[in-house]
Amino acid sequence: MQILVVEDEPRLAEAIAQILKEKKYMVDIANDGRDGYDLAVSGAYDCIILDVMLPIKDGYQVASDLRKEHIATPILMLTAKDTVADKVKGLDSGADDYMTKPFSPDELLARIRAMTRRQGEVVLDEISFEDLTLSLSAYNITCKDKSVHLNFKEFEILRILMSNPAAVVTKEDLIVKVWGYDSNAVDNNVEVYISFLRKKLEFIGSCVEITALRKIGYRLEVKKSAE
Amino acid sequence: MQILVVEDEPRLAEAIAQILKEKKYMVDIANDGRDGYDLAVSGAYDCIILDVMLPIKDGYQVASDLRKEHIATPILMLTAKDTVADKVKGLDSGADDYMTKPFSPDELLARIRAMTRRQGEVVLDEISFEDLTLSLSAYNITCKDKSVHLNFKEFEILRILMSNPAAVVTKEDLIVKVWGYDSNAVDNNVEVYISFLRKKLEFIGSCVEITALRKIGYRLEVKKSAE
DNA sequence: GAGGCCCTATGCAGATACTTGTTGTTGAAG
DNA sequence: CTTCAACAACAAGTATCTGCATAGGGCCTC
Q: Which nucleotide comes closest to B212 if you measure CA to C1'?
């Protein structure tokens, strides 16, 4: 975990660095706003601790310039200014959090944990099987660089197949899960959509195919090389 | 923008709600930890303001339970407890920010802005997609030199669409996030506002359009050149 | 009471979902 | 080896239902 400390007073900067290093964070220090900005635009840091009163370029400016460049690194602003107006200015210039000096090391660490925690959260947004990727938010399938949109029923069916690639899914299962247990859909309905899906898999050139196992159901498989 | 206030003292809850409503936030209030949790798990809120000392289930518990359920809604913890240990406990139980009473309304609002900003990776005051820019403070959209005002519902819908341009947003999602999860708005309401938005996009000559994907939802797309 | 905002109702167009029918495939019985 | 029944795939046609646009009415603010 990389942290950038932008602070012009060497002793304070060193003290903060020490606190962080003890917790195994990797720390870089910048002594003025310009250096801080230059380091931060790399996007290499997981968190930036930013003083407000800085030579050359103040903290508000640094934060706001970073946001303009679409650098989304969490910023914790750290300063002696404790009026509400200062806090509002800091937060609105792009900071995610604002702490006033003097501060407690434990609180600093807790706020860093809170800010960086969010970073690692991956939104489960897609399912993959071999070279095939199903996007749950965009409702399409992608293989290499080609992608194609799925309509509702196709999507639901493929999602069920892909969420359990090894398993064989019966038509009854599909009807219950896609059409609803009280529907009067017939097997042929499923066959029709399977056929649509096969066409789309073919179109994007995926190596995945939907195999029918007679009397049993459907399963995803990797195409045999000898086509 | 939906905000949940979890606070057992009715007068304070009402005061907070008032501050927020003035800024056009939609506010729900829960009076104890259990109700707060039940409302929050819906995932309908953009932000939760959470008191610590609550009947039935305290704020730490609520925050930590929500995180266990993978509800990532930003939480601002609000309490009279101001020791470092309390702050650490609050932040580590899942809160994103921690404010002590008494607090300034302006600071509260600034911290809410800071927390919700990250949601859509908004650069300060505006969101952009292709040639379209949505101003969060002026409630209007601009394309090249033309701009047009949006009313509240139009604005909220477009903000949601633009904050995640690749994703398909269902009508359900829009109803929950714009009308509130307990509203009885119907799909047609959404359709009407989508229709208004399209007219305004057309009017300012944007290359962005709102595409409907049947049975799935809406998505922003760039207009095909061959009109 | 004028104007803006929000919701409801309605007719229409077109995409989607389902049906039907033909052809192809499989496997077991004769 | 042939025949037949059961099952599967697919194309094409039809009907339904979703989504769109527009109009009108209630409500609130100014």
A: D19
